[in-house]
C-alpha cells in the first residue's frame, strides 16, 4: 500500500490512483477512518486529515435521496454493481479512467460550513485544471460540480458526520462515458458529461 505522510499540511494521502479498488472496499475504508477520527477527537488526539485517491471498477452509486426514475434500467437487473449510499446528490457512475478522491477532513480545523466545503472542493478542481492544463472551468449557479461550458467534468457528493467529511469528488479523465447514457447523471436532464482528455486535446 502506497502511504504518503504530509505532516506539514496535517494530511495523510492514501495514493492508489493507478489501482481499481472495488467500491465497497473504499466505502468501508472511509467509514472505518471516520470512526477512528471520531475516537481520536474524543481523546483530543485528532491531528491529521486524510485523502484517498483511487479508481473504481464500473459501478453506479445513488445518494441518500436519489430517485430511481433517473435510472434507465431495472434496478434488479443493473448492468453494473449499484449501491445506495449516505452521500448527498443523485445517481452517478464511477469507472476506470475516472480519478476519485475521498477527503476525510475534520472541518473543525478549517471552517464548520458545508457550503464553504463544497465550494472549496470545486475551487481546487478549477485551479488545477487552469494551472496544469490551461482549461477554463467554472461553476454553474445553483448546481454542484465543475463545468467546462455546459459540460460537467467533475461531480461532488459528500457526507459529514460530526464535522468529519467523507465521500468526495470524481473527475472524468479518460473514462468510458457510455455507462452515463444508462442514467440521468446527478439528476440533470439537460447537461452533458465530458472528459478532461478531450478538453486537453482541443487546446491549441
UniProtKB/TrEMBL annotation:
<dbReference type="InterPro" id="IPR000544">
    <property type="entry name" value="Octanoyltransferase"/>
</dbReference>
<dbReference type="GO" id="GO:0016874">
    <property type="term" value="F:ligase activity"/>
</dbReference>
<protein>
    <recommendedName>
        <fullName>lipoyl(octanoyl) transferase</fullName>
        <ecNumber>2.3.1.181</ecNumber>
    </recommendedName>
</protein>
<comment type="pathway">
    <text>Protein modification; protein lipoylation via endogenous pathway; protein N(6)-(lipoyl)lysine from octanoyl-[acyl-carrier-protein]: step 1/2.</text>
</comment>
<feature type="active site" description="Acyl-thioester intermediate">
    <location>
        <position position="186"/>
    </location>
</feature>
<dbReference type="GO" id="GO:0033819">
    <property type="term" value="F:lipoyl(octanoyl) transferase activity"/>
</dbReference>
<keyword id="KW-0012">Acyltransferase</keyword>
<feature type="site" description="Lowers pKa of active site Cys">
    <location>
        <position position="152"/>
    </location>
</feature>
<feature type="binding site">
    <location>
        <begin position="168"/>
        <end position="170"/>
    </location>
    <ligand>
        <name>substrate</name>
    </ligand>
</feature>
<feature type="binding site">
    <location>
        <begin position="87"/>
        <end position="94"/>
    </location>
    <ligand>
        <name>substrate</name>
    </ligand>
</feature>
<dbReference type="GO" id="GO:0009249">
    <property type="term" value="P:protein lipoylation"/>
</dbReference>
<dbReference type="InterPro" id="IPR004143">
    <property type="entry name" value="BPL_LPL_catalytic"/>
</dbReference>
<feature type="binding site">
    <location>
        <begin position="155"/>
        <end position="157"/>
    </location>
    <ligand>
        <name>substrate</name>
    </ligand>
</feature>
<dbReference type="InterPro" id="IPR020605">
    <property type="entry name" value="Octanoyltransferase_CS"/>
</dbReference>
<feature type="domain" description="BPL/LPL catalytic">
    <location>
        <begin position="45"/>
        <end position="204"/>
    </location>
</feature>
<dbReference type="InterPro" id="IPR045864">
    <property type="entry name" value="aa-tRNA-synth_II/BPL/LPL"/>
</dbReference>
<keyword id="KW-0808">Transferase</keyword>
<comment type="similarity">
    <text>Belongs to the LipB family.</text>
</comment>
<keyword id="KW-0436">Ligase</keyword>
<dbReference type="Pfam" id="PF21948">
    <property type="entry name" value="LplA-B_cat"/>
</dbReference>
Amino acid at each position: 500500500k502506497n502511504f504518503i505522510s504530509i505532516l506539514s499540511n496535517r494530511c495523510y494521502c492514501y495514493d492508489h490512483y493507478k489501482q481499481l479498488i472495488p467500491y465497497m472496499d473504499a466505502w468501508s475504508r472511509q467509514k472505518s477512518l471516520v470512526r477512528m477520527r471520531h475516537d481520536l477527537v474524543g481523546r483530543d488526539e485528532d491531528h491529521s486529515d486524510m485523502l484517498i485517491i483511487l479508481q473504481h471498477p464500473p459501478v453506479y452509486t445513488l445518494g441518500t435521496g436519489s430517485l430511481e426514475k433517473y435510472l434507465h434500467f431495472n434496478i434488479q437487473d443493473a448492468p453494473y454493481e449499484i449501491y445506495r449510499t449516505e452521500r448527498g446528490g443523485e445517481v452517478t457512475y464511477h469507472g476506470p479512467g475516472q480519478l476519485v478522491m475521498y477527503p476525510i477532513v475534520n472541518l473543525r480545523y478549517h471552517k464548520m460550513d458545508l457550503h464553504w466545503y463544497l465550494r472549496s472542493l470545486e475551487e481546487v478542481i478549477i485551479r488545477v485544471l487552469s494551472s496544469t492544463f490551461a482549461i477554463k472551468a467554472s461553476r454553474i449557479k445553483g448546481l454542484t460540480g465543475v463545468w467546462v461550458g455546459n459540460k460537467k467534468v467533475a461531480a461532488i457528493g459528500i457526507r459529514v458526520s460530526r464535522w468529519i467529511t467523507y465521500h468526495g469528488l470524481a473527475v472524468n479523465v479518460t473514462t468510458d462515458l457510455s455507462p452515463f447514457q444508462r442514467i440521468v447523471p446527478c439528476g440533470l436532464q439537460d447537461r452533458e458529461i465530458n472528459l478532461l482528455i478531450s478538453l486537453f486535446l482541443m487546446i491549441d
